[in-house]
């Protein structure tokens, strides 16, 4: 059987794009070996506090990959921007050993920077790759011209040929696709200096009892710092929500549940799940409750899409946790980010969620720090906004990164706040140790009396150069501990090692069953 190798270079087992391509290519008669490179132990405290994304690749792993790709017609890699240097390094090693073998880069980074990514590869696949990659492989096999495949940017001698893109998959086409690959067969993973068979234990080790899935594709927003800002320029239809039917999706979840019987939670990572209509969410909730019966965690909640009705039906289906983008509490910065959401609307969304606090783990709110465009008055407004934001919540604080080619990055370069984008040092940087960052981080742990906050934001220390890095780190640790505490109250022990996590999850399940019987 014709063989290809797909390598996920991100430190993750949850890359949906490459898993979808693996399924589709297998369905079309190829043997696909899929390798997940996980060089950091993503479960450690250290990783949670300061992830590093270098350009290194373990020698043992590299040599083993070189052996594994020997019989492959083509090698495909996928990565986000923070791992592109590692993908380039691996591609160079493969090309050095097998100059005739074609190596293709796809995924988020390739789509964002396009021809800029081609240096180390024979071709770059832009956007949705299922059909494009299959056509590329078929042409390769038949010795046909691969330089005209749509969605592909191809190196031909000294020239780089860029083709137009095919339309995005319609809802009907998404439904005709095989389910994303979630299985164990022909899948491999890095463990230290070796590549070994992917097992159920790896799923648990890197994702705990949560299984990450995505139902809808696309986002109606195009925030100026986000990759969707670029996607929209590639194809306006990225702003539309596309998805297969709920029934199709639920069948996929049933298969996953059968393969990984110890998972307790499906983690919906859609960009904008709550933007689906109430009717569709109701039907989804009904099917999920009746056929799946596990917990639900939903990320990507856009405040304007949160309604009481949607939360109510989802709680009935097992919703336990929501993650929402706040990003800032002042209108000027929200405008800079292209987020058409007013602070009062965000307060309303949190007010809705807090009405269900008896059933939900506190909402996780994302907030962006270290934005050089913000003045101390802007930060003061954000701090006073957090003071009014209905609790309970956790705060995920991020230092602003300059993703290549976004409008915000261009503006920051033009106005000389940064020299270049962060493609070579995207590090999930720890927030700076400034006093406003300290006050914001405090809200992730507890609420100080409002009169104290009002006094502090008007004091001189707001503009001082004093650094509070150690305190901010400590608060991040408390924020994490508080989060772990609330999750464990809901019987979710994701933060423990797989062995204890499984044990306690089972005990919690049996305890609940016994209580129900009484
Ligand atoms: S709402 Fe979220 S996913 Fe959508 S564009 Fe903004 S940051 Fe990106």
TrEMBL record:
PROSITE patterns found in the cross-reference section: B12_BINDING, RADICAL_SAM
Keyword Metal-binding listed: yes
Domain Radical SAM core: 205-437
Domain of life according to the entry: Bacteria
Residue ranges of domain B12-binding in the record: 1-147
Pfam families: B12-binding, Radical_SAM
Organism in which the protein naturally occurs: Desulfobacula phenolica
Full protein name: Radical SAM superfamily enzyme YgiQ, UPF0313 family
Family annotation (CDD domains): Radical_SAM, radical_SAM_B12_BD
Cofactor: [4Fe-4S] cluster
Transmembrane residue ranges: none
A GO molecular-function annotation: cobalamin binding
């Amino acid at each position: 059987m014709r063989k290809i190798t797909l390598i996920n270079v991100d430190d993750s087992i949850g890359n949906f794009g490459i898993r979808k391509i693996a399924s589709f290519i297998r369905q079309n008669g190829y043997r696909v070996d899929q390798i997940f490179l996980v060089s950091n132990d993503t479960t450690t405290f250290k990783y949670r506090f300061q992830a590093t994304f270098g350009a290194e690749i373990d020698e043992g792993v590299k040599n083993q990959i070189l052996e594994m790709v020997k019989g492959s017609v083509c090698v495909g890699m996928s990565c986000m921007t923070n791992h592109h240097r590692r993908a380039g390094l691996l591609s160079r090693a493969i090309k050095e050993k097998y100059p005739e073998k074609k190596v293709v880069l796809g995924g988020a980074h390739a789509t964002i920077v396009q021809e800029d990514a081609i240096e180390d590869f024979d071709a770059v696949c832009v956007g949705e790759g299922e059909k494009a990659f299959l056509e590329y492989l078929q042409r390769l096999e038949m010795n046909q011209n691969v330089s005209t495949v749509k969605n592909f940017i191809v190196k031909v001698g000294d020239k780089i040929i860029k083709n137009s893109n095919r339309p995005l998959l319609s809802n009907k086409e998404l439904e005709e696709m095989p389910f994303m690959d979630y299985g164990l067969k022909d899948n491999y993973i890095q463990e230290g200096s070796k590549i070994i068979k992917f097992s159920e234990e790896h799923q648990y080790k890197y994702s705990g009892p949560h299984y990450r899935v995505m139902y809808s594709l696309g986002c109606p927003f195009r925030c100026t710092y986000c990759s969707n800002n670029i996607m929209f320029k590639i194809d306006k239809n990225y702003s539309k929500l596309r998805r297969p039917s709920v029934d199709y999706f639920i069948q996929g979840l049933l298969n996953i549940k059968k393969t990984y019987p110890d998972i307790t939670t499906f983690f919906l990572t859609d960009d904008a799940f709550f933007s689906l209509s109430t009717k569709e969410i109701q039907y989804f909730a009904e099917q999920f409750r009746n056929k799946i019966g596990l917990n639900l965690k939903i990320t990507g909640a856009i405040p304007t899409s949160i309604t009481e009705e949607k939360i109510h039906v989802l709680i009935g289906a097992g919703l336990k946790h929501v993650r929402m983008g706040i990003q800032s509490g002042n209108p000027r910065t929200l405008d800079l980010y292209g987020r058409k959401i007013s602070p009062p609307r965000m307060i309303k969304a949190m007010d809705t969620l807090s009405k269900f606090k008896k059933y939900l783990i506190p909402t996780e709110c994302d907030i962006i720090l270290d934005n050089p465009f913000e003045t101390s008055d802007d930060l003061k407004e954000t701090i006073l906004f957090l003071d009014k934001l209905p609790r309970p919540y956790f705060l995920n604080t991020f230092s602003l990164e300059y993703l290549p080619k976004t409008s915000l990055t261009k503006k920051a370069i033009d106005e000389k706040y940064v020299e270049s984008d962060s493609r070579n040092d995207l590090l999930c940087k720890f927030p700076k140790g400034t006093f406003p960052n300290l006050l914001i981080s405090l809200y992730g742990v507890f609420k100080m009396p409002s009169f104290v906050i009002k006094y502090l934001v008007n004091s001189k220390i707001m503009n001082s150069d004093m650094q509070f890095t150690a305190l901010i780190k400590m608060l991040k640790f408390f924020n994490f501990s508080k989060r772990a505490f609330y999750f464990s109250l809901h019987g979710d022990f994701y933060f423990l090692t797989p062995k204890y996590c499984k044990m306690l999850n089972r005990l919690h399940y049996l305890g609940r069953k016994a209580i129900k019987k009484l």
